[in-house]
Amino acid sequence: MPLYWFHCRACGGFDVAFAMADVPAAAPCPECASSSKRQFGVAALIRPGSAATRLIDATKRTASEPAVVTAPPPRRSLPVTRNPLHRKLPRP
């Protein structure tokens, strides 16, 4: 379920999960129980800590903190075979 952000005048902002069809215009504050208006914005459809969230965070982090390397990766040489039957195999 998506998370919606509500703002209480006394306590500040808080998130509440509602089904998209059932989201109200106001919700009670979890601290003081006063009516809090819904703030319009993007609904959070991804749960924090999920694999998708970790992937998105890692992608954002590489934009500002790229990995530093000292040298290119070593080249791997292909094994050489002396078997004549291997010449008949299809090449990649």
Automatic annotation (TrEMBL):
Highest rank taxon of the organism: Bacteria
Limits of the Putative regulatory protein FmdB zinc ribbon domain: 1-41
Pfam family, one: Zn_ribbon_8
Annotated region (Disordered), positions in chain: 62-92
The protein, known as: Zinc ribbon domain-containing protein
UniProt source species: Nocardia iowensis
Organism placement in taxonomy: Bacteria, Bacillati, Actinomycetota, Actinomycetes, Mycobacteriales
